[in-house]
Amino acid sequence: MAVSRLLPSQEAEDLLDLVRDFADKELASRVDEHERTETYPEGLFGTLGEIGLLGLPYPEELGGGGQPYEVYLQVLEELAARWAAVAVAVSVHGLACSPVAAYGTPEQVERLLPDMLAGNVVGGYSLSEPQAGSDAAALTCRAEKVSDGYRVTGTKAWVTHGGIADFYALFARTGEGRRGVSCFLAPGHADGLTFGRPEAKMGLHAIPTTTAHWDGVVLEADRLIGAEGQGLEIAYSALDAGRLGIAACATGLAQAALDTAVAYAKERTTFGKRIIDHQGLGFLLADMAAAVGSARAVYLDAARRRDAGRPYSLEASIAKLTATDAAMKVTTDAVQVLGGYGYTRDFPVERYMREAKIMQIFEGTNQIQRLVISRHLAR
Amino acid sequence: MEHARPARAPLGDGARRGERQARVNTGGRRLTMKSGINIVVCVKQVPDTATVRKLRAEDSTIDREDPNSSGVLNELDEYAIEEGLRLKEAHGGEVTILTMGPAKAAETIRKALAMGTDKAVHLMDPALHGSDAVQTSYAMAQTLKKIGFDLVILGSESTDARTGLLAAMLAERLGVPQLSLANKVVVDGSAISIHRVTDYGYDRVESSLPAVVSVVEKTNEPRYPRLKEIMAAKKKPVTTFGIADVEIDPGRIGLAGAYTEVAEFAVAPPRAAGVVVKDEGDGGVKVADFLTSKKFI
Q: Count of CB atoms within 10 A of residue A269's CB?
């Protein structure tokens, strides 16, 4: 049963229909095999790009889909309900396009962005380092000015699509302190650029996450996005939007877990009745449904503020915190509903539970979200 | 295995008649092929096969305007649309969607336009309600005569009524060859040939244009609509015709005058248990016999 949604336009309704159809046929059918064998879904991002899902929230004039965040995030939610790793990678791609879209020169926008938003090239995001995650300003990767551009040396961590992406939004140090970080649109393949073996992650197996080693990689001067030293500002400008992307992914994951649990609870009988009719289990499912509904409500509230041009940083943090904690709870309870079967890999809920955990960690840990929220309260 | 036998197509297919007609057509009807093929794809909105489908108690017809039931584009029609689009991409021309149905069928038109077709014609009139296959073919044929075509493509049947009759009836009414059950369609100039799937492989059936083709599933891989096409769809022309616009005689359509009548209907019984073969040393033979009786082997 499709999630009932209030959408702002007929074309958004048609878009969501398309996404559900696509996700059922192309994602749901392949997810188990790729997650089990940890293999990359070759060709899938090409198709996502072709149908127009890799540039949704960007303006049509720039080659994007011209969709409000309210719609874009619900698309992400539907993708995540079938295949979280793919939805996360779509969100990361959107994030990787944002520096050029927001800070690029008109020439850079015209030269680079159309291919990025059409999905002809797929992007990764490279801010974190082994010793600089939440504390992004502690990053040490250097971009040393040389005659024909910059020479990049250092190690980046947790790069989604690492080794596969065609470009990376790369943050590296051109000076000291908080104003010493710059943003680059780096190529996916270059002399001196190597990637570590994919991390052996708990979930999101189909899309590799790697370290990236920049060993004197030379970038042309026109790969600098924004001004030298503007890097952290650029990175932070996209954080709120990125958090909403993860909130939407987490909501989709929770919805999928709820749907699986409800379907199972209607079929499985104990003591002569369906287990959904046992109040103990019915209430557990009710709490799960309430958690999914509130997760969706908070991220949509934040998205509508963004679409209206209002501040939404507080709401984005609340959404990320609420939706990802909801996903953790709902997916864990879904395993409980399925009992021993839920603990096996014959059913998807154990995967959902593993995938939910990362949602509480990346794009700002939920501790960082609480920090953001409490600072807003202390103003 | 290929059975190329255009001159010996079984009766009822229309291909033989098509050969004759080809000569008539060459001198007669002028094709619009100079600027590509004028393709009309007939589509139908049907109840989603994934849901429980109901008939209306009062007249045993499908409630096509129930806002709670999700109507979808008949699955086989997606292959018809894809085939139309591919022929257009190869030869030029345009693809027009034709549907008959109530206002709700506009959803299906939007989906078909979002796949990349050019324009649509919606035949909509309360008087059409309850029309059976014979009457529907009359109404559709009248509309096709009005809008013109080089090639009409249909899915070989709809998932609701499943009569699979419309292509044949349309061809007859339009006086053009019918090439049925195609899983491959090739147009060369004003000639068309198809592979018609059979139990033993396929027949190659040829005729001239104009013609009516029905396609089976797996003819191609229907494309997904693209966001850009979804946005463009609302700017594409959709013409709505009532029965008077296409000179349909109200006495020849509608439930009252239908040639067929649903006397009663019931929910299909749950599937019976399968055949159990007890292996007494001859299990393999019995299984093979069973599969042979079902024409699987």
A: 13
